[in-house]
UniProtKB/TrEMBL annotation:
<comment type="similarity">
    <text>Belongs to the ABC transporter superfamily.</text>
</comment>
<feature type="domain" description="ABC transporter">
    <location>
        <begin position="7"/>
        <end position="235"/>
    </location>
</feature>
<protein>
    <submittedName>
        <fullName>ATP-binding cassette domain-containing protein</fullName>
    </submittedName>
</protein>
Length: 236
């Protein structure tokens, strides 16, 4: 099935409270592909990621990840298909220590003990297992959340604003990680305002406005041609 989308939505409509956050979104993501979803605050980027992660039930249209309908899939099955690193990973870190966080991730993913810890040692060298997750820096929390997500080896990885608060070195490490993930066949979707990040790692850029996709094209084309991109590019 070479080239078959890892995940796709078709005519996807999602309400958040009174707001129609997504209005007929068609998007597909393929293995090994990095897609940057861009657009103003409130455009619907987080809602699109959340829809792939099973957080929102569509009001219309459809969404699938592999053969699964995310919001109707049990969490233990879903972690094998899709992992979301949210905008503030702190909200997803409950345990008192990194080690306990890792043990929970292993249990959730039903993988051998030590699987998550090995990923943490790789992504966060030098962070002791007894460290309190809330004492980590923003970049360290991002790496921990990514390790937790990767524990189940999901084919689809979603990152919401992954470079927010990261310094240059942490950003470079993230870029290297994302390239390695894509090289390993994972599909990566990142919601971001960071034009540099998109230009460095994304194969494709999807631009959203008011719940719709207004551009979806190879990164190089979007960077030069889209008016939505122009003011951001001017800053780089
Ligand atoms: P940002 O860059 O600020 O994260 P975004 O592009 O990710 O923005 P979303 O967070 O998906 O946009 O929001 C889409 C719309 O849904 C916005 O109008 C937002 O105000 C609304 N919205 C988001 N969360 C909720 C909620 N919990 N309840 C009601 N409306 C919400």
């Amino acid at each position: 099935e070479a080239g078959r989308a890892v995940a796709e939505s078709s005519g996807l409509c999602v309400r958040r409270g009174r707001i129609q956050a997504l209005r007929g979104v068609d998007v597909a993501v393929r293995p090994g592909e990095v897609v940057a979803v861009m657009g103003r605050n409130g455009a619907g980027k987080s809602t699109l990621l959340g829809s792939f992660a099973g957080l929102h039930a569509p009001g219309g249209g459809s969404v699938r990840v592999g053969d699964a309908v995310p919001h109707r899939t049990r969490p233990q099955q879903l972690v094998r298909r899709v992992g979301l690193v949210p905008q503030e990973p702190r909200d997803l870190l409950y345990a008192d220590t990194v080690a306990a966080e890792c043990a929970a991730a292993d249990a959730d993913a039903q993988v051998p003990p030590g699987t998550c810890r090995a990923l943490v040692d790789d992504l966060l060298p030098g962070v002791a297992g007894r460290a309190h997750p809330r004492d980590l820096s923003e970049g360290q929390r991002l790496s921990l959340a990514l390790a937790i997500v990767l524990t189940a080896r999901p084919p689809l990885i979603l990152l919401d604003e992954p470079t927010r608060g990261l310094d240059y070195a942490a950003k470079s490490r993230l870029v290297a990680q994302l390239r390695a993930l894509a090289g390993g066949g994972h599909a990566v979707v990142l919601a971001t305002h960071d034009v540099e990040l998109a230009a460095e790692v994304a194969h494709r850029v999807v631009i959203m406005a008011e719940g719709e996709i207004v551009a979806d094209a190879p990164t190089a084309e979007v960077v030069v041609s889209s008016p939505a991109f122009a003011p951001q590019v001017a800053k780089v």
